Structures are given as C-alpha cells and as structure tokens.
Amino acid sequence: MKSISTFLLLVLITSTIMKAQRPIVIKDDSLKVGKTSLPGFSVTIPEVPYDNTLKAWTKTLESGTKSKVVTENGDMTIFGSKIKDISPNPVNIYSKMVKLDSSVVLRVAFELKKDQYVERNGTPSEFSKSENFLKEFAKDQYSDLVKDQLNAEEKKQRDIEKELSSLEREKTRMQKSITSNNTNIANEKENITVQNNELTTVSAAIIEHNRQLDTMAAGPAKDEKAKYLKDLDKRKKKAQSSIESSQNKIDRTTSDNEIPKNEQAQQQVNQKLQAQQAVTQKYADKLKKVKAF
Question: Residue 43: which of 145, 147, 130 has the closest Cα?
Fold first, then answer.
C-alpha cells in the first residue's frame, strides 16, 4: 500500500511539473508606439517575475553605452544601444513588457537606421540575429528562474537526507547501547548469583553459630563467637545490598526497544526522499530543456 501511494505521488509530481514546463515563444509581431505600428518581435517567457525581467532587459539595453532607457506609459525607448549581436552600429530599440498570469510578454522593435526596422521581409541575417538575441535573453531569464527552483528543491532533498542520516546514526547508537546494556545486565546477573550463594552460605553459618552461642558459657570463647557472628551479619548485609544494587541497575538498564520505531521512521523518510528526488530530477530536466531551447 505504501509503495502504491509513493508511486501515485511520483506520478502527481511529474504531472504537475510537466504542466509547468512551457516553451519560450518568439514570433515576428508589431509594436505600437504612439499611433505608429512598428515591425518587430514578441517574446513570451514563461513563469519569470515581471520586475526582475524588466530590470534585466533594461540593463541589457543600457550595457556598454551611456544611453538610458526612457519609459513613458510603459513604452521603453533607447537610442544608440550597442547590441553587437545584432549590429556593429548603435541601434534604436523600442520595447514594451507586459505581465500576464504566468508569463511575461516582451514586444521589441529594432531600428537599424532611420525608419529601417528589422523584420521578416527585410535582411534575413538581421532578422535571424535579432531573433537569436531575444531568444538568448529569454533563455537566460527562464534559466535563472528554473535554477532558483532547482536550488530550492535540492535544499529540500538535502534536508531530508540529513533527517535520514540522523535516524541512521540514532539507530547505530541504540544498537551499541543495547549491546552495552546486555553486557552490563549479564554482569549484574552474574553478581546476583555470586551474592545469592554468599547469602546462602552466610545465612546457614549464622544459624549454626547462633545455635553454638546459645550453648556456650560466659567467657572469652563466647565473646569471640559473638564477635564472629557480627562479622557474619555484616557479610550478610553486604551481600543483600549488592544484590539490591545489581537488581536496581538491571531495572534501570532494561527499557523498551526503540529500534522498530526508528526503522519505521526511516522507511517513511525514505519514501519522502524518493518523492523529493523525483521532484529534484524533474526540475533538473526542466532546466536542461530550457537551456536546449
């Protein structure tokens, strides 16, 4: 039943992550700037946070130039941007980023010269370079997101592995403790046997010497016998005390065996680890797919 539950959990995890895996979509499109519609591209980047992507796009446009992106009503414009992957000459770039429920859409128009825009019907190499530039930007953003997701899942996996290692160490400690306790119990039981023999011998001797004492006349011999009986009584009390001490040690040492509980806990954590390993692997696969786009 547990293995079936784990299997169903893995299927559910795989299904959930696969649904989350969406492709980057790049297509030729138009960008409306004021009342003018410019030819260009649209890029749909799944899952990425809008604010981070906007900052990354702005930084990319301003990299290597003193020009700054000017934003008005969501429309971004930069003149003289140096995008060597598109052109060796400065490029004017018009763009707009829109936040959707689970993606960000970036619309871009590249102006190579006055009123000369990169478009599908234009120079093929310029179109291809621009498309690749946008694809790499989108891949970087999506990859960074999935890396963070993967790192989070790897941390969860490490935490579970630590939990399992802790349980394994605890089991080893308990096994050693049980072995040590068994040795101690055996030693104390042996001592009880020895002291019981001593108690039997001394008790019999006390009875016999008391009988003799009762028949003796007063004098040094009787006094010596009484003294000897006192020594026997001390030996008896010492044996009784030793037996009681050993029994107390046995009672304190004997406890419930916690190993079955530990093994059950290990089994549960192992199932959790298997499920988490599946999640981690799916995010690793997801990252590979994004990088291979």
Answer: 130
